[in-house]
Structures are given as structure tokens and as C-alpha cells.
Amino acid sequence: MDPKVNGQIQKEWVWLIAMYLFLGGVGSGAYVIAAVNGLFGDGLGLATSIGLWISFPALGIGSACLLVDLGSPLRAVLAGVKVGSSWIARGFWVISLFMVVAFVHTVLVHFTEAPNATLVGVLSIVGMVLAVGTMAYTGILLGASKGIPFWRSGAVPVVFTISALVTGHFSIMIGMGLLGEAAAMAEPLRVMAAEAAVLVVLELLAILFFLQQAFTQPDARESAERMLRKTLFVVGYFVLGLAAPLVLMLVLYYGMSEAGGGGIAGVAGLGALLGLAGGLILRWAVLACGALPTLNIAGFEFRRIGRPKTLRPDIGLMPPQ
Amino acid sequence: MIGSTELETGMPRYGMVIDLKRCYGCFACNMACKVKNHTPPGVFWSRVLKGETGTYPNTVRQALPVLCMQCDEPSCLEVCPTGATVKRPDGVVIVEKDKCMGCKYCFMACPYGARYSVEKWESYFPEGIPLSPYELFTKRAWEEKSGVGVATKCDFCLDRLAEGKEPSCVLACSANARTFGDLDDLESEASILIRRHRGTVLNPELGNKPKVYYLPPR
Hints:
The structure holds two protein chains of two kinds.
Chain A: H1 15-40, H2 46-69, H3 87-111, H4 117-143, H5 155-179, H6 182-214, H7 218-229, H8 231-255, H9 261-288, E1 295-297, E2 300-302
Antiparallel strand pairs in A: 1-2
Chain B: E1 14-19, H1 28-37, E2 47-55, E3 58-66, H2 75-79, E4 85-87, E5 93-95, H3 105-109, H4 133-145, H5 158-162, H6 168-172, E6 178-182, H7 189-196, E7 212-215
Parallel strand pairs in B: 1-7
Antiparallel strand pairs in B: 1-6, 2-3, 4-5
């Protein structure tokens, strides 16, 4: 293995951390949608119920991904020690508390005959605050990393927060399509499709803002260009993870008012699945394109040196050793 | 740039000066660090980068030795969730391996790429070849000092400092490009070099206040 060279992408945080950030977003996003729906919508309707059932397991599996990625998982109990300065420590407490609230909320509304409405309301509000904290944390965690210029942008928490809402929303739509009676779900899914379309447009604007910000700083610009050269990002996120779900949601809302419940559930499920995959690809791409900053001194730049793809012995050009 | 905070405590504030005019990129510091600290494959507490400037054919190459900058405002310390990263009173930033959970957040916080970790200790030789007595010794030494699954980094060879010796990279530098000393001692050679030759630090705009200074290459 070669020594680290500034300008190279970081290789320590890859898929497991992407899963951690993604599932943290799905769990918190689904909880917010469920809690809002529960407080201002249909009480314990199917959407609320599914959102609550998604949040705790998603957060649990996401946290397990982080644990697996740790070099010394048994010391994870120390993760909350330096809450005064470390965002991982703050996130540890926010996510831990959120998981407790989400679990209690889910159990309370599903397994008690007549849950106390005031208690449910308080849990919903506290849970929503913690859920928003979790959504933002997944972006702030990266934004506070001084060693990766690409991530050091206020746009990252914005992108991840909106993406968390989008993926949480889509995960509930998938649950409704799978668990609900097709005919009864047709209208709620169409309404949710309209909401999802608005959220996807907001995410599109946020990601464009993030890229625009990145292009204003040389090191971040190189990372952004690297990200835009990745086929998985362009096709998997922009085309299949944003554009396709947006089109499908608009078709669902405007073009399928007369369609049967099965067709609506199918289109909603397909769009939502693509949107969920896009959310994971987004986080992976942001992680996988983060690079150490160029070191500068006295006019010299010390960074990754391009290695020629083909040797040109005829002109004496050899790859750097 | 010489700080005065530690003057009151009577503790030294260790730092290093690297004269880029003298460094010719021989990698002796790199190798000396590896031999002294028994770092396994892929771990480079001391590195040498190569940079260039100018337009062909008028170009100049320059070597840049890099190690942990032992920052006065270390961003790795700020982000460490467990308190494993500590700044000692003498200014050396260390990792207490028994507290590190291996989250690698410090890797993302350090703009100088100074931190490394290994998931398992590996030999420099292909698998299947029995470990030599020297390798068994280095394996044990690495596990005692750093270990697997935790963040590791240069500590200015603290054990050598305790014996009144210089860090091994300073000793190994054949061009005498490295000078180690107390930055709070205005009469130390390191302080004098920084003042006399306008020593500067890498990427000062990041605000980490590194204690590894560089004398300009020209």
C-alpha cells in the first residue's frame, strides 16, 4: 500500500458509513413523516404506523453498520464522552435518545389499548426534534471534517436532511404499497406522490447548490468533478434516483387518477425503491469523493500526481514510483 | 509565531523545523520512522511528498517531508468522541490506544493525512513465510505501542525524547534538514531558524497552528 498523498480520496469511510448515514436518514425521515401525520393527519393511520415501525429498526441497523466499521467496537460505549466538541459524541446521544423515544412511541401506540393522547403528543414532538437532529447530524458529521474540503460545506447537512425526508417518505410509500389494501391505498398514495415530488425537487435544488458551492474551491471542485464522472452517481443518483422517481410521482399524481389500486401501488413502489437506492448512492458518492486538501508552500503544490495510463518509453515518460 | 502560553508552565513546547532547501527527498526519514516505530505495511507516520511548480521546460521539483504537525489547535483532538486523542503539556498530540474505538473521524479531521490504522498486523513478506525473530519482535512492539483497530500517528518519538535524544527522523536526515527543539525557548536552534529564515507552516489558513515549520525552498 502506498503512503497517503494529499489530493487522494479518503479510503476509510466507504459503504458501511454510507449505510449508517443512509439508514439514519431513512429512520429519522420516516419518523418525522409519521409523527406529523399522527399529530395533524389521520392519527394512527397506516402511514403513521409504517413510519413508526420503520424508524427504530432502520436506526438500529444503521448503528450496527457503524459498529461493524469501528476498529474496536467494544469501546463504542465511550462514543459519547466528548460531547462538548465532537459531532460523533453528540450524534451518539441524539441517536441513542431518538431510538429510545422511537421505540417507546412505537410500542405505546401499537400495544396499548388506549394510549394517553398527551403522552403520545409529547413523544411525537420530542421524537421529531431528535429526528431532525439525527437528519442534520448525518450531514454535520461530514461538514465538520476539516481534512476533507469537499465536505466542509453548509450545503451537506441541507442535502442530507432533505434526502432523509425523501427516503423516509419513500420507505413509507413502499410499506403502504405492500401492506395496504390496493384500492384503499390509491388516493393516499397519490397524495404522498405529490408530497414526494415536492421533496425530490427540493433535494435536486439542494444538490445543485452543494455542487455549485464545491466548484468555488479548487480542492472541493476536483472532488465534485470526480463525483460527476462516476457513472454510478450520474446514472444511479441523478437519473434513476432523482429524475425517474420525480417523473413517476408526477405521473402517479396527474396521470393515474382513474387507474386501479394495483397500478398505483406498483408505480409508487417502483419510484420509491429507485428513490431509496438514490439516497444510498448519494451518501456513498459524497464519501467516496472526499479527498485530503492540497498542501501548499512557497508556490509548490504537493498532491496526487497523475499516473499515465499508458507508458510512453519513446519520450522517456515513466510513471512516478 | 513562537507561542508563550507554555512559558508560564515551564514545559517545553516541542516542534520541528524542516529546511526545504536541504531536503532532497531521499526517504531516509521515512525509513528511519518505520524501523524505529515498527510500523506495518501501509502505515507511514513520516512521508515524503513530491511537488512541482513552473511550466515545462522551466519546472522545479521539490520534496516535502510530512509527519504529524503536532498542531497547537489539533482538529483531530476536537473531533475525537472518546477522548483518546490528547495533547500533552509539552504540545505532543498522542492517541491513548485503550480509549480509541477506531471510528476514524480523526482521519477525516486531519488535513495533513497524518493518521493511520491497520485492521490486522501484516508482515512485509508474502503469506506463508514464517515470521523471523525480528518480525516477531516488531509485531509485539507494534501491538504494545499502537495495536490494531485504533488510530495511530507520529508522537515525535516520545520514548527517545525521554532519553534526551532527538526523534529518529531527525537523526536519520543525511542532509541535516531537520531541527528539533523547544519552540518556546527563544535561544533554541529551532526557534532561531524559524525567526532567521521566516519559517512557515503548511496551509496556515486551516487554523490548526502546526508546530512543524518549513524553511522556504528558495
